[in-house]
Specification:
Low-confidence stretches of chain B: none
Low-confidence stretches of chain A: none
Strand content of chain A: under 5%
Distance between the termini of chain B: 51 Å
Mean pLDDT of chain A: 93
Oligomer: heterodimer
Radius of gyration of chain A: 21 Å
Distance between the termini of chain A: 51 Å
Number of strands of chain A: 0
Strand order of the largest sheet of chain B: 6-7-8-3-9-10
Strand content of chain B: 15-25%
Structural class of chain B: alpha/beta
Mean pLDDT of chain B: 93
Order of helices and strands of chain B: EEEHEEHEHHHEHEHEEHH
Chain lengths: 216, 257
Amino acid sequence: MLGEVTITLLQGFGKTLELFALTLLFALPLGLLICFGSMSRVKILSAIINAIIWVIRGTPLMLQLLVIYYGPGIVSHQQIGFTNSTRFLAALIAFVINYACYFAVIYRGGIQSVPVGQREAGKVLGMTNSQIFRKIVFLQVIKNIIPPISNEIITLVKDTSLARVIAVYEIIWAGETYIKHGGLIWPLFYTGVFYLVFSALLTWIFNKTEKKLAYF
Amino acid sequence: MEITMALLEVQNLKKNFGSTKVLKDISFSLEKGETLSIIGSSGGGKTTLLRCLNFLETPSEGRIVVNNDVLYDGADTRKYSDEEIRKKRLHFGLVFQSFNLFPQYTALENVMLAPTLASRQTGESQESIKKRAEELLDRMGLSEKMNLYPKQLSGGQSQRVAIARALALHPDILCFDEPTSALDPELTGEVLKVISGLAAGHTTMIIVTHEMKFAHDVADKVIFLDDGYILEQGTPEEVFEHPTQERTRQFLAGYDQ
């Protein structure tokens, strides 16, 4: 029985991991773009970007999921046929936008915490702005943002379970099916083990990285 | 008309931040191999002057000429590209009060970074850059510390790495912005000794400092900058022993106690 449940839950966890990995893949770079936008000297651009960040951070992710899921159909007055892949896509879009905004704020903090003297030292040594960013600022930003980013990433592992509200078959749902079809509750609790093991792995990776950068 | 000019000519330089006038009318010149000490109370414009020379600030008016090459002319309204400003900047080196070493690089890598990045234009080989960096650090008395990271170095050692880093680009004029203000007295001596050594070797330098004895001993020329004006300029003897202005005497008296 345990073996069978484990295999079922692993299938659900596969979806969880897929959503997790794809969200990071898109949200990490998108966050950098949003970050640059929010720091832009073009006032109107930074105002718009900051307003978006405010809305995304100020409303529940669950609500954003539902808006992305139902929104297009309501706006276009068309019946949209929901399939597993459109559900997954809606969830992915909502997660990417949401996390990119959080990442953007973390990046901004990381960039601003590099002392201005570092850039000035690069300038008086005749470096170009791009050399200054790549050779001096970048690694210092990475070091600065690892603790807050690791927090967000571990939160993301658990937040993926929200995709269940638009019927994305992830691990919590996989666990719940045992309640409906057999009255078993322990498989649902068992899902927690998967999250714990995975976040332990992530924590280990982040600690390693932090130690690796501790030389400066 | 051909006029032989000094290595550095600063003429009627002015700098405003909004409505605040920080540099009001600064003119001086510096010959090759000379050391200039700039003294004066905080907020008098000393640091701003160095930042203007290094193009970290754009002056509001005046002229800066190095080696007959006009680096800045307030009358010239055209916009300079980043590339042009970078070229102008390289006439000067700047050593900061807070060192500003790059923490992720070793002492040696700090010195090598800029010449390595520039080697695409200069064509200098990596071996030659490394050899030169090692020689510079050796001259700074840091041959044992080359492979340490900034956080493993004392303040005095860090500042000496910063001096080597600035020298690695062969600036015409090396500027120091209160190079010992962040150091405790014990470490101040080792940095001043290195700078005195450079002066003896005829490196052209501009040194902003609050170390009056050092300013007196190391300099060929001294400027007393107060409230955006040069109140006094001359040899160390003239400025320190026979100041013409009451304000200078008052300032110097504050250090005698």
